[in-house]
């Protein structure tokens, strides 16, 4: 359960309860006014709100009980629970975060960071100092579980986390030249180090990870996002990866806090002209620099499966996540402009989320918002001539789909547009006629550069790793490294 750690969070939680209670009351009165909505859907929505209210009230009750001094003893079932117990003890002792900071000779912000991460970045000596400053005594028996990397891997896989993702992003590599005893020791250390990272990303405690209970994903950080899930999509894996990507996006926002922001243009002509004016030509590296100049960090990922792109706005700041394994600059550019359009919408809203579950090029006809976002990208890439160019290609191919593969490159060269972008657009137009030309369009993509590497290098130049704790630095660096084939 989420824990309230200070008076500000206490007030926010009370306000959230009032907000959910009002929404629940409005839901009850709208049941009869919306007969088209199935009663079971209304029931599920009502139960979800009631559950959220109950959880928030439990958080309030715990905080109020601690402040009132009702708890004289806090029981720990593992050493892993000590950080949270220290926070509870501070509250029960009547100390604010500022009070504790003064006793330790630290800044209040440092205590806030410690408690926000439940002391994930603090060493054991610091935990001892904190316990002494609060004035508590700790006596505990500890059972050290023996769990192999394979056991942990199985548990994580059952929770929807992809096997390759686990190895590439959470497990540090083992040395290949070790004795059997040393290998066992290293394996135990590896599991514990991986568990710390998993706790940071997914909120699972060591007790959760090492118990026999199924691991449950907390989807609260994703907000009210709605996925466009295809029939072949694995919902559990999509949810798990999105939680992971959302965490990384928050790290990027934290590490680019000083990035100045600019208004985001909604006119595609203005975007194209700005890029060409500032950088000379429309290329992926130049478009990337332009998006960063608007104050929007771009996080490139290269893991397999799950979504292909995402946009988050958190506390008024935008971040774009691009996740492609292709080296097609046209595909990366389309994704980038697509998400830029989303970032420009509803600028007055401090929070906003859009997840692209499927390939943008193939799923763009699903909703009006997605169609508009992709038209925005096509317009920039093809100079606003997409319909005209499609007509030229069709006429020169004399209506033959087979001839298009040779016609599209010629038209693109003559009209000075990207052959990859034109091929993608033609494939989209044909898909509206139930013709699948995506394979041919893929073969026409140019791969002179690696867009992921370019976007990764730009990100590394822009961010300040120094503001992140060691665990978060490691997680972000692993996310920006080449996936390890298993």
Number of strands: 4
Helix content: 55-70%
Report the average pLDDT across residues: 83
**SSE string, helices as H and strands as E:** HHHHHHHHHHHHHEEEHEHHHHHHHH
> For the CA atoms, what is the radius of gyration?
26 Å
Biggest sheet strand line-up:
1-3-2-4
Task: Estimate the global geometry from the Cα principal axes.
Answer: elongated
What is the count of DSSP helices, taking H or I runs of 4+ residues?
A: 22
The fraction of residues in strands falls at under 5%
Taking the sheet with the most strands, its summary is: 4 strands, mixed
Distance N to C terminus: 35 Å
Q: Please, what is the oligomeric state?
A: single chain
Please state the structural category.
mainly alpha
Could you say how many structural domains there are in total? 4
Task: Extract low-pLDDT stretches.
Answer: 140-144, 226-232, 359-365
Give a quick precis of the structure.
This protein is mainly alpha-helical. Helices cover 58% and strands 5% of the residues.
Which helices and strands appear, and what pairs or packs with what?
Blueprint: H1 7-30, H2 39-68, H3 82-92, H4 97-104, H5 108-116, H6 124-134, H7 149-158, H8 163-169, H9 180-202, H10 206-210, H11 235-255, H12 268-279, H13 284-293, E1 298-301, E2 309-314, E3 317-323, H14 329-344, E4 352-356, H15 360-363, H16 368-381, H17 386-396, H18 401-415, H19 419-431, H20 438-443, H21 451-462, H22 470-479
């Amino acid at each position: 359960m989420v824990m309230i750690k200070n008076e500000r969070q206490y007030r926010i939680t009370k306000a959230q309860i009032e907000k959910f209670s009002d929404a629940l009351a409005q839901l009850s009165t709208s049941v009869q006014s919306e007969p088209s909505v199935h009663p079971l859907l209304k029931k599920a929505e009502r139960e979800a709100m009631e559950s959220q209210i109950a959880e928030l009230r439990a958080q309030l009750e715990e905080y109020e009980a601690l402040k009132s001094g009702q708890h004289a003893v806090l029981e720990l079932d593992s050493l892993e629970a000590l950080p949270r117990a220290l926070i509870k003890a501070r509250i029960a002792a009547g100390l604010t975060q500022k009070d504790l900071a003064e006793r330790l000779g630290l800044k209040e912000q440092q205590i806030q960071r410690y408690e926000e991460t439940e002391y994930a970045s603090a060493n054991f000596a610091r935990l001892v100092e904190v316990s002494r400053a609060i004035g508590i005594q700790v006596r505990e028996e500890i059972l050290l579980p023996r769990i192999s990397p394979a056991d942990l891997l199985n548990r994580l896989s059952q929770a929807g986390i992809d096997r390759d993702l686990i190895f590439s992003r959470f497990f540090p590599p083992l040395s290949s030249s070790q004795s059997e005893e040393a290998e066992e020791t290293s394996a135990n250390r590896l599991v514990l180090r991986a568990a710390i990272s998993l706790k940071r990303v997914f909120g699972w405690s060591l007790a959760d990870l090492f118990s026999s209970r199924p691991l449950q994903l907390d989807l609260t950080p994703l907000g009210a996002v709605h996925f466009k899930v295809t029939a072949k999509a694995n919902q559990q894996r999509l949810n798990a990866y999105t939680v992971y990507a959302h965490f990384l996006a928050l790290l990027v926002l934290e590490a680019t806090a000083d990035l100045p922001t600019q208004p985001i243009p909604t006119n595609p002509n203005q975007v194209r002209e700005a890029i060409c004016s500032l950088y000379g030509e429309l290329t992926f590296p130049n478009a990337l620099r332009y998006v960063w100049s608007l104050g929007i960090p771009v996080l490139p990922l290269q893991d397999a499966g799950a979504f292909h792109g995402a946009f988050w706005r958190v506390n008024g700041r935008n971040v774009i996540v691009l996740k492609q394994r292709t080296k097609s600059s046209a595909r990366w550019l389309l994704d980038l402009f697509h998400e830029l359009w989303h970032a420009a919408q509803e600028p007055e809203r401090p929070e906003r989320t859009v997840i692209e579950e499927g390939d943008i090029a193939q799923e763009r006809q699903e909703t009006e918002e997605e169609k508009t976002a992709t038209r925005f990208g096509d317009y920039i890439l093809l100079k606003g001539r997409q319909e005209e160019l499609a007509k030229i290609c069709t006429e020169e191919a004399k209506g033959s789909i087979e001839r298009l593969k040779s016609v599209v490159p010629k038209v693109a060269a003559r009209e000075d547009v990207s052959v990859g972008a034109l091929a993608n657009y033609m494939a989209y137009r044909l898909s509206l006629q139930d013709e699948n030309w995506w394979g041919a369009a893929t073969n026409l993509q140019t791969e002179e550069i690696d867009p992921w590497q370019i976007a990764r290098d730009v990100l590394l130049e822009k961010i300040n790793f120094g503001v992140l704790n060691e665990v978060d630095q490691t997680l972000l660096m692993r996310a920006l490294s080449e996936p390890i084939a298993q």
